[in-house]
Amino acid sequence: MNIVVSIKQIPNLTDELEINAEGTGLDHDALQYVLNEFDEHAIEEAVLAKEATGGTVTVIGVDTTGELDGALHTALAKGADSAVKITGDFPRGTDSHTQAKLIADAIRGMSPDIVLTGVQAADDRDGQIGPMIAAHLGVPYVGVVTGVQVKEGKAVVHKEYAGGVMAEFEVALPMVVGVQAAHQPPRYAPVSKIRQIAKTAKIDEVTGGAGPRAGSTVRRMFKPESAGHAEMWEGSPEEVADKIATLLAEKGLVKRG
Amino acid sequence: MAKDILILAEHLNGKLADITFEMVGKAKELAAGFGGKAVAVLLGNGVKSLAESIGADSVLYVDDAALAQFNPEAYGRLLAALIQERNPRVVMIGNTSIGMDLAAGLSVMTDLPLIAYVNGLAADGGTLAATSQIYGGKIQAEALPDGEACIVACLAGAFPADTGKGSAPVEQIASPAPLDDLKVNFVKLIEPEGGDVDITQQPILVSIGRGIGGQENIELAQELADALGCAVSSSRPITDAGWLPKTRQVGKSGLTVTPKVYLAFGISGAPEHLEGMRGAETIVAVNTDSKAPIFDVAHYGATCDMLDLLPALTEKIKG
């Protein structure tokens, strides 16, 4: 079983996001980048599939930050067997169309049985990478998946709809899966192990060519104006607890003690 | 002749999803600006009656046994063929579980640009301006397609549904592509497990997010819920981590809740979460990040440490 995981880094959303001087994009240099959390789940699901059926896991991404090595080393520490980074003139915030084409071109020759990737990323303005990779490779795609079982040239996947309803599909391999959540929480890789791997592991490097670009141009980026804002309660946890208890009592939901 | 706007009608279990009406209503407004017609596309098996409640200018209906349930491969193939055949100005697809399997692949297959996570669409002169909600709802990006035509993936709830309801002439067409050699086979629908508490029926919810820090702290929320006689719910990361069962998840891929009081502890308020709880009567949010989007929908807010607040509140309620 030849399993490939496509990953990407995105801005850390807990940071304050600043818009560039032109007002058309983020001020990427001011941002910390982290691995897309859905890709963490894709890595976990891939390692689980390998543990269940055997095979190898290759993790691949476009290095848009100059810092992809860290994410690749972490994936290796979690059980991936090899790591590939695509390098070239791909700045932070490189669009999905470009990244998907680069990844599809790089993995075509690997003949993967299954490609796993995060179902979406917070910066997928021009769409998600998974379905694009599938279209480039000419293989089926199922996304919003919370469980993958692979056996005898087929994958059984569970796709989530709203309200907790799921659909089960059986798909002839090869295919691309957009992972919403691995069927168990992503494992933790000890920092010492990641450091050890960083010293010894070899990351294969592929030079990428020009991409197709997003096909649309942002003319204005801005922060949403909120229609309203909460009335803020200042004070200690004790004081806030008192305010909440009063509110619940006023609504007749608890007796005021 | 002006080009049409194609809208993918979304349906599950014999019921059209609201996103269908939301997109159709918007498409009619855009069609009035661009010329052309708002043409809904319904793919299914024995669901022609659904087509009759869509308020588009017309509905194209493809009936095939392979379309009895949503199948991403079948849908993708048919939509690609219809786009090729009809050369529409705009293709509107939901940025939903179903639409997210389709839009990006179609963009590659048809070589049309895709603008995703769209919550604003306007005919700006002769041009389509599409606004995307990205970076977890923290940023809006207004973009123009580089060519004339494009695909837009629309967020649920972005446009009013009412104007998309009504009726339209239905044209049943032969399948524009073969469906007898699909690699994706639908097996079954799996309904949510019963047996757990029903979070949609609770007057109060103690809802927790990433701010809870670790599984060992879930207990603090459960103790408060026990004192209040209500249940603990959560945002997606908590159920993904396996700290609570899936039945407790509020939001887009979970449940929609409307309690009298929704207590959001350590929830930042990603758009997917807000979608499932903004209808609550009163929302109280506690998050150390004073800029968290949850405060834009909450009625009351505080930035103190939830791990101190939870036991303090539990003590107060116990009296």
Let me know the largest β-sheet of chain B: 9 strands, mixed
The strand line-up of the biggest sheet of chain B is 9-8-7-10-6-1-4-5-11
| CATH homologous superfamily label of the largest domain in chain B | HUPs
The CATH topology assignment of chain A is Rossmann fold
User: Which structural class should the secondary elements of chain A be placed in?
Assistant: alpha/beta
CATH topology type of the largest domain in chain B: Rossmann fold
N→C terminal distance of chain B: 73 Å
Would you identify the regions of chain A where 5 or more consecutive residues have pLDDT less than 50?
none
Shape of chain B: elongated
What is the mean predicted local confidence, pLDDT of chain A? 94
Q: At CATH's second level, what is the architecture of chain A? A: 3-Layer(aba) Sandwich
Largest interface: A-B, 93 and 107 residues
User: How many structurally independent domains of chain A?
Assistant: 1
The assigned structural class of chain B equals alpha/beta
**CATH architecture annotation name of the largest domain in chain B:** 3-Layer(aba) Sandwich
The helix count of chain B comes to: 9
The number of helical elements of chain A comes to 6
- In N-to-C order, the SSE pattern of chain A is EEEHEHEHEHEEEEHEEEH
Q: What is the general shape of chain A? A: globular
Helix content of chain A: 25-40%
Task: Present the secondary structure layout.
The complex is a heterodimer of chains A (257) and B (319).
Chain A: E1 2-7, E2 9-11, E3 33-35, H1 37-53, E4 56-62, H2 68-77, E5 82-87, H3 96-108, E6 114-118, H4 129-137, E7 141-151, E8 154-160, E9 166-172, E10 175-179, H5 191-200, E11 203-207, E12 216-222, E13 231-232, H6 237-250
Parallel strand pairs in A: 1-4, 1-6, 4-5, 5-11, 6-10, 7-10
Antiparallel strand pairs in A: 2-3, 7-8, 8-9
Chain B: E1 5-8, E2 11-12, E3 15-16, H1 18-34, E4 38-44, H2 48-51, E5 58-63, H3 72-86, E6 90-94, H4 103-110, E7 114-124, E8 127-134, E9 139-145, E10 150-154, E11 170-173, E12 184-190, E13 204-208, H5 218-228, E14 231-234, H6 236-240, E15 261-265, H7 271-277, E16 282-286, H8 294-297, E17 300-302, H9 306-318
Parallel strand pairs in B: 1-4, 1-6, 4-5, 5-11, 6-10, 7-10, 13-14, 13-15, 15-16, 16-17
Antiparallel strand pairs in B: 2-3, 7-8, 8-9
Helix pairs in contact in B: 3-4, 5-9
